[in-house]
Amino acid sequence: MTRITLEAANRIIEVALATAAEKKLKPLAVIVLDAGGHAIAYARQDGASPGRFQIAGGKAYGAVMLGLGGRAQMARAEAQAYFIAAANGALDGRLVPVPGGVLVTDASGTVIGAVGISGDTSDNDEACAVAGIEAAGLNAQP
Amino acid sequence: MTRITLEAANRIIEVALATAAEKKLKPLAVIVLDAGGHAIAYARQDGASPGRFQIAGGKAYGAVMLGLGGRAQMARAEAQAYFIAAANGALDGRLVPVPGGVLVTDASGTVIGAVGISGDTSDNDEACAVAGIEAAGLNAQP
Amino acid sequence: MTRITLEAANRIIEVALATAAEKKLKPLAVIVLDAGGHAIAYARQDGASPGRFQIAGGKAYGAVMLGLGGRAQMARAEAQAYFIAAANGALDGRLVPVPGGVLVTDASGTVIGAVGISGDTSDNDEACAVAGIEAAGLNAQP
Amino acid sequence: MTRITLEAANRIIEVALATAAEKKLKPLAVIVLDAGGHAIAYARQDGASPGRFQIAGGKAYGAVMLGLGGRAQMARAEAQAYFIAAANGALDGRLVPVPGGVLVTDASGTVIGAVGISGDTSDNDEACAVAGIEAAGLNAQP
């Protein structure tokens, strides 16, 4: 197993924000968590509201803790709402089950962390996360 | 970027309550928060229940933290209920996504705080907040 | 039993802040709570840090919940530290046992609320609270 | 009043970590908060333990919320331990009253945020925070 270095996390954030600039998205918050759900790096663009930390953080935290990207969590929420609600309670309300939370895996498929982005639409948030993860040479699982 | 002074916050509360008196509304609680979601001023009229602090406070806190007024939050809750539910969990249950939470912006459009009102109907609560904000020379975003 | 009206609470805050201005104190936060420990009115002067809400609030909340002013709590803390520490845990950490939390009683001696002030020295905070309470025609118990 | 932009926050982190490298310090975590105590940027170096987020965060959060740098908080804790303990409870346990939490002020002396660093000795943590803040053209108050 490898891990996400601070250098890789900074690269993920740099490319995610450059992608957002190209797409002319609203100001974003981007967080990179390790395999334990703990922050490695975070950046909130000027104009993004302060609670974006909790939203981006919840997207990434839920992904790591459940081993499921935000898009997969959303599908599960639509199929079985009470499971995701209960999981959220069990995780102290720290799960935000929508796109924009993306698992990061290494070459062997092991989860080594997650990226969470919030600020624009969930689909755009996710696209920026994927772009950042791939630019860092890692695999993204939305 | 400017900020909401105590003088402006007191003016917001004064005009919000005068508006409520004209409309013969039920007793209200009015809170004014800064751009970080922290209270600048609060007033609860005689006869308003004690939990109005938490309801008015949650309307304003959610507005600041998400950068969305209560009416916009309500629309999002109706379109995607589980997102607002999850956001609320991520914000420690301090979000009340209905009208009556109104963002305050300065001339450049920067969010400098929010006003939350509770006690009458959500629509009436919101009307009093907007009246107060505008009387203080600031911009209201419901 | 009477109660602290919003008008009385506003008078308490007005006189407390006028007293602070005369004494040239640092910016203050002032909260007035009812007999249930719930906020009636709050004002934070420009330049007072945001956490003054929690400090002033804790001074007043502990006073109401224990029926003891902040100065009396401090004496108890010095005599029996573990009791105040345990009481604080039982009250969810919301007790700040220093001067500046002042009980408000009516003519019959019944507790009808409390005032909490934070921003300058504890002794100065308390003096402003007492001045405000007395100006509103109520009795202060530090 | 100005604010700490993301560009300034990134510069603070960059110079703080370069200072640590020069001094050959242990791996650090560095957080930059806005005037409301909300994260703008965070970086945790490879090898720094995950809880450094909470320690660095608590140093900066307590500074913003109380308007006192970590060194000033430590002096208060040594003079009146139960006050800082109670303030910590009132702030939900999020205060870490030691050096390494440094207030950031603008040219007029207004608090616009704080930097928190954890990983080496408190004194070294603080020196890196001050170096970063000054490199960004802002004023540091330990």
UniProtKB/TrEMBL annotation, chains A, B, C, D:
The protein's name in its UniProt record: Heme-binding protein
Native source species: Halovulum dunhuangense
Coiled-coil segments on the chain, per record: none
SUPFAM superfamilies: GlcG-like
One Pfam assignment: HbpS-like
